[in-house]
């Protein structure tokens, strides 16, 4: 089968190419899926560079989300010919991928295969960071950094659907501000966008709360890391949960860190990843996604965004990674096989 490979096993986007490799075989509880579309994620960029710690069960081939048709089934829950989409530990950048039944979903009639391919990683991650780790409760306020990212778009809409009181988000342009502030409209929830190039999110958010009364943001989700860490502590409410899901600005916090705020505000600061989690953990996320999110997508209450579609050629694969690296996307980047 054809799959995306990396020259020298790591390097810049130019090292990506389409090569030949063996077709994988499904084991008990697994399915062989003929891939139609796959989604790109930032972990793919890190893995291509050799900077992502792969879980032991992950194959060498990039890619964790896809849509396609089952060609061989070793599961009693899915049949040959089923149209499916799902999450895998790796291997989705290929004509065929082996998927576990625990993280696979049948594609509803009213959902396109193109859109479906970009949903699993984004929404499983969003559900995890907001509800499982972030312990979101109805009426909580939420801050998500990088709100125009695919996960940001998902978390904002998920929080709105679950009854957030207010949602703050940092983005990198006025265009993105206009885009994200509409994401809570269908649920009547205010989204406050903050352009980090000309606004300080601490100053903006502080105007909404009285810190002397323990007020602030209840759930803060941060993929940025170093440059935001101290300010996250400062604008967090008493008993807030701060979820660290990335370190795009760096993994080491420099300067004076006021750990007293963690103590006296009783803050919970927790890091998390999804790809390293076992199938039982991921299955629970899938089940919540199927029961809560999919119906809202089909009803038109939650919007899905495919920002750009690329073809399964070496030229387009290289271009897709460069586009994702440019930080210009507002929604998913998808490749059609």
Automatic annotation (TrEMBL):
Protein name as annotated: Enoyl reductase (ER) domain-containing protein
SMART domains: PKS_ER
UniProt keyword annotations, A-Z: NADP, Oxidoreductase
Region feature Disordered, mapped onto this chain: 1-27
Entry coiled-coil feature ranges: none
Species of provenance: Yarrowia lipolytica
Biased composition (Basic and acidic residues): 1-12
Keyword NADP: yes
Top-level taxon in the UniProt lineage: Eukaryota
GO molecular function: NADPH binding; oxidoreductase activity, acting on NAD(P)H
This protein's record includes keyword Hydrolase: no
Chain ranges of the Enoyl reductase (ER) domain: 11-335
């Amino acid at each position: 089968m054809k799959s995306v490979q990396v020259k020298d096993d790591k390097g810049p986007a130019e090292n990506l190419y389409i090569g030949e490799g063996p077709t994988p075989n499904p084991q008990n509880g697994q399915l062989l899926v003929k891939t139609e579309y796959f989604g790109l994620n930032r972990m793919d960029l890190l893995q291509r560079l050799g900077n992502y710690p792969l879980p032991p069960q992950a194959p060498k081939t990039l890619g964790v989300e896809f849509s396609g048709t089952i060609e061989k089934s070793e599961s009693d829950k899915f049949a040959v010919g089923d149209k499916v989409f799902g999450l895998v530990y790796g291997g989705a950048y290929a004509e065929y991928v082996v998927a576990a039944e625990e993280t696979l979903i049948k594609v509803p009639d009213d959902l396109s295969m193109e859109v479906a391919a970009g949903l699993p990683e984004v929404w499983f991650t969003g559900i995890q960071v907001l509800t499982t780790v972030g312990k979101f409760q109805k009426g909580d306020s939420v801050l998500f950094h990088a709100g125009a990212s695919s996960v940001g778009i998902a978390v904002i809409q998920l929080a709105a659907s679950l009854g957030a009181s207010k949602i703050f988000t940092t983005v990198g342009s006025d265009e993105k501000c206009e885009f994200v502030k509409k994401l809570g409209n269908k649920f009547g929830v205010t989204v406050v966008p903050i352009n980090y190039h000309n606004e300080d999110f601490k100053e903006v958010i502080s105007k909404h709360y009285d810190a002397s009364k323990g007020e602030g943001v209840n759930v803060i989700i941060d993929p940025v890391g170093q440059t935001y860490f101290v300010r996250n502590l400062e604008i967090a409410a008493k008993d807030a949960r701060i979820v660290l899901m990335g370190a795009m600005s760096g993994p080491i916090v420099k300067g004076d860190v006021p750990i007293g705020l963690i103590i006296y505000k009783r803050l919970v600061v927790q890091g998390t990843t999804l790809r390293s989690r076992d199938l039982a953990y991921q299955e629970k996320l899938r089940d919540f996604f199927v029961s809560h999110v999919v119906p809202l997508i089909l009803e038109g209450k939650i919007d899905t965004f495919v920002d750009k579609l690329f073809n399964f050629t070496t030229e387009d694969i290289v271009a897709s990674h460069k586009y994702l690296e440019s930080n210009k996307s507002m929604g998913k980047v998808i490749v059609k096989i």
